């Protein structure tokens, strides 16, 4: 009688760890690809450049034909940078749309589920989206401002009103235009992250920037006069204005805070930080 012997089986090997790790750099690359594969990105950024350059050219062209006796000194600098004020305000609408769609579009299509599945901590997804969006808009806005300056210089040099880059105030205003557009886009991004619905977010932010702030500034009620200087666009747009314009706006408010250009921009940044902080907390707690 023979007995069968069983040879010992080798223990199963544990599956090897995946060589791929979800790092913040990988998230940035993923968000970069997603941003540029959506048609709305191309259209809104192109519209930003067209509106900026077109309005600067239009205003500067009218000024070159209507002004015969150009002022000098601070008044000349203020007047020479005037074409950028309406241009930035109109271009901000385009970047606001992109800022909202950059986050709310994923909730609409359901792609946000894939994003948070790849990065379960969730908040790195939010920060990577914000970083790609603001960096892109900052670069595009800087190009638009540079082109606008070149066009304005061609028109305004005929009447000795062309702003000179050797003036620190000119550099501050031109750089401030690009900073304002990038930051107001981040503000719109934060609203979109809070509401998670494109139409609702766009209606909210456009109503705030275009209607509510103007109405609050126009109503001569003392409590509103204290609030008005601290509203996002009212405060943040000071970085796009010359010192003379900032002083003139401050003098028109008897009870409001006399914010400088950089202080006003700081208020806008504070709005963005607070809203993004709330959005980050809600993103971790909400069901996707």
From TrEMBL:
Transmembrane portions of the chain: 42-64, 84-103, 130-153, 173-195, 202-221, 262-283
Gene Ontology MF terms: ABC-type transporter activity
Keywords annotated in UniProt: Membrane, Transmembrane, Transmembrane helix
Top-level taxon of origin: Bacteria
GO-annotated cellular components: plasma membrane
Protein name as annotated: ABC transporter permease
Organism lineage string: Bacteria, Bacillati, Actinomycetota, Actinomycetes, Micrococcales
